[in-house]
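Saturday, quiet lab. Running sequence design on the structure tokens for the scaffold JK sent over.
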């Protein structure tokens, strides 16, 4: 049976088209993988790529991407709204077809060891690959950012899983295995970043909001627009529409409206179908029965 693994690496570069195109070319040049999507944001100064392939293919592509990023991206010259700790900031592997979480954990460890050995970028294993519960959450690993990471990794509790000394320009990277998440952003009719921060605090699970939502406020300088930027880590138990409606309610407190939403990368069809069912208020909706696409 053919195994299909998804990989969604994030890079700390959203402005230089030459570098971004080079990352895309690195993926397409790797046998056994298919590039599905990539996007770059100048305010975040970050790009996100989505590709799928065989276990060997995604492993080779991920290692090649880390090498490219280490050579071309210099975090000492980087600034952007999105938190970051590495040139290639995070590399997650997701099981899609005939693959298990254990398969992806094994790949993440092989990739992590290779990156540390071949690029001198230290690696933290996170999510389902984490070697301790304290390292499961990416935000906990990333806390302190690139600027604080050299000091952080000198402490025994934050010694990297692979490698030791921080790369002077490429920082560190988190590599792991996880289930699908949805990167989903909500743009507000305000340029006040404090409003976005306040709403993000209410929405995110870590501060008492929606259990499976991670959220921060971000300023889109090119649009003069404040944004609530989210990772929805379990779209079934915390659907997209629930986050949208909570943000809409909280925004009204400030006389602010939602002016648009943004999907970064790809999302499972069910996540979008759930939103359609909610907003259209379709009674007795059955996806298997009512979706024409299922019949051809």
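Result came back. Writing it out in full:
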């Amino acid at each position: 049976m053919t195994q299909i693994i998804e990989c969604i690496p994030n890079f700390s570069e959203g402005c230089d088209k030459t570098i971004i195109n080079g990352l895309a070319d690195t993926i397409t040049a790797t046998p056994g993988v298919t590039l599905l999507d990539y996007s770059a944001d100048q305010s975040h100064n970050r790009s996100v790529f989505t590709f799928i392939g065989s276990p060997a293919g995604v492993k080779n592509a991920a290692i090649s991407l880390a090498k490219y990023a280490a050579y071309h991206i210099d975090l000492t010259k980087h600034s952007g709204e999105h938190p970051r700790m590495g040139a290639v900031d995070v590399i997650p592997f997701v099981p899609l077809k005939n693959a298990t979480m254990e398969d992806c954990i094994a790949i993440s460890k092989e990739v992590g060891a290779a990156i540390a050995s071949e690029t001198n970028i230290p690696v933290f294993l996170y999510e389902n690959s984490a070697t301790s519960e304290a390292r499961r959450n990416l935000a906990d690993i990333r806390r302190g950012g690139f600027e604080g990471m050299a000091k952080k990794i000198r402490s025994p509790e934050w010694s990297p899983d692979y490698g030791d000394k921080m790369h002077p320009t490429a920082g560190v990277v988190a590599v792991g295995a996880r289930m699908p998440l949805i990167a989903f952003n909500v743009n507000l009719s305000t340029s006040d970043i404090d409003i976005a921060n306040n709403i993000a605090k209410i929405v995110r699970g870590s501060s008492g909001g929606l259990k499976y939502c991670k959220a921060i406020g971000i300023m889109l300088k090119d649009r003069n627009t404040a944004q609530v930027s989210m990772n929805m880590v379990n779209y079934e138990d915390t659907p997209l529409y629930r986050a949208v409606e909570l943000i809409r309610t909280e925004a009204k407190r400030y006389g602010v409206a939602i002016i648009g939403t943004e999907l970064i990368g790809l999302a499972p069809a069910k996540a979008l179908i759930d939103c359609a069912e909610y907003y259209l208020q379709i009674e007795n909706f059955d996806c298997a029965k009512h979706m024409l696409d299922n019949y051809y």
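Notes for JK: The chain has a mean pLDDT of 95. The radius of gyration is 19 Å. Ask whether to fix the surface positions before the next round.
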